[in-house]
Write the structure tokens for this entry.
Amino acid sequence: MPTINDIAKKLGVSKSTVSKAFHDADDISETLRKKILETAVAMGYKKNRVRKDDPRKLCVLVQHLDWKDPAGFGHDVVLGFEQAAVLDGWEVEIPEISKEFQTQISYDAFMLSRSFQGAFALGFSLSDPWMEDFKTAGTPAVLHDNYIPQNPFVTYVGVNSEEGFDLAVSHLNRLGHTRIGYLGGDANSFIVRARFQAYLRAMERCRLPADQNLIGRSCFISECTSRHLPRLLNNGATAILCEHDQLANAVLVHCMELGVHVPKDVSIVGFDDTAFASCTTPPLTTIRQDQNALGRCGYYALTSLFHHTYISSLLLRAELIERRSTGPVQPGT
Amino acid sequence: MPTINDIAKKLGVSKSTVSKAFHDADDISETLRKKILETAVAMGYKKNRVRKDDPRKLCVLVQHLDWKDPAGFGHDVVLGFEQAAVLDGWEVEIPEISKEFQTQISYDAFMLSRSFQGAFALGFSLSDPWMEDFKTAGTPAVLHDNYIPQNPFVTYVGVNSEEGFDLAVSHLNRLGHTRIGYLGGDANSFIVRARFQAYLRAMERCRLPADQNLIGRSCFISECTSRHLPRLLNNGATAILCEHDQLANAVLVHCMELGVHVPKDVSIVGFDDTAFASCTTPPLTTIRQDQNALGRCGYYALTSLFHHTYISSLLLRAELIERRSTGPVQPGT
């Protein structure tokens, strides 16, 4: 591994300048700091020998999720991670990182600059610049709901979507439903694709046709409810699986506006079991992700990477929570 | 949850008789003991309130694997599990369990009778009677290389086969190989099927045809080498992926007997990186499973089940170990 001296030589700067870049000092320019950090990363430099009084620091990187809202998805995942990490004596920071920020500095260089030893990343879409960085990153990262093939320093943690949709489709099938539709996003996101594929496979396993006329996909919830929902209902869907609870709730509201009764006319199933799922009208049948456990497992997977145990994926069981938005299919439909 | 009293009432025996069955006492008949245990399990009884002086006991259940041989697959998996468990103050036992034994008592009743709180099971094939029990078991179990859908008390731990075969097929493809064959078992086993499927998908991802003329499958290594190997070679295979190292080694030996040079005439890849893989002639290129890490992760997954963190699957990264049994495809082949 290169030393600070090697990096200084390569760039024609002093050792103390390199050291300043690593410790986020004020008296070097931002441009030089970044150049030093990116060069260090490119040369394979790692801060192995942490000074005794250096804090042991991890970070949680959150994109596209309102993790600060206790009712939103992400809050309890972050909490579970923090609780486990703090118990083991780690400091946990949750730095602001925008898409633009990610274009300015690479993931590895950012981690080096802030002395973070590992990251737990939530909510990243495939268009986030650091998703490209994770393919070759050398600083351990655990990604919630994102999978990077073949880089041993990056782990995928999530819930078993296939199992979740199997449970939901079997539940609806037992209630007599065969025309089971799907509403979801079409964003450039690993988990959006994974859930849609899980729906298709669950239908196949139950020997039910996944009819294009019963499938609606759009990035915009409003388009799902105003355009796709009426189409699915007209095409005879007696049950609809929604990619996430927020969408399912919007569907419930829109059904009420259309005078369509849930579950008499159509059964609705969500995904996540977010805090509001029991408070919708009617209360939502949904597939539960144990959010706190996801955070705890994220922490375990991250520390495993520190100890050379390279976990590729860790998936939690999904659980079907039966509430009142699903019911038996009506005779004659 | 039913009490000892409830069980005694149901069977018309005394409480002390039930207690004797639970503590493996000598002075009740084997038939009555089994009846009591199976009834207790059927009624949903669990030994929750362990007495203070009761040892905390886990077991490792091994089938079809010579785990006692340090060179065999399984030895280091068991060791990794034991090391992690003992550090946490558990006693670990490795009871003898034959197929016949499994027909005599259910998994849950066995665990209850021996006061084991959880099991780590290795090497089970789909024809092992307890594989059926695991579908509904209430006593936590972690299965190496076996997946049970939808029972939250059972976790699958293994290595990511898909990733392993991706690495191997890409490696061979970079060496110019396109006619890449497969030799493996056709046993009634989850992992035998999973590895074959992983081969097919890896070929698909590399846009290479998985030609039936280049595939040989049999339970018997001798049939793979004497019948399938010559057929694959005649059909123009320039590289062969083997389901496990033992088979790969037999293939190497047989190639030598046939006057076929490895890797000049054919490249051979194994799976597992068992202890002898570096000592074959030539040393074997293979896909590594970190056995000790599998054991450690097995322990983590098992204790997670005790704490209501229901892990569905935990897969380790596979790693390609390049040795001398693979080389560039020869011009003109």
About this structure: Chain A touches chain B through 26 residues (CB under 8 Å). Chain A has twelve helices and twelve strands. The longest helix of chain A spans residues 190-205. The longest strand of chain A covers residues 57-62.
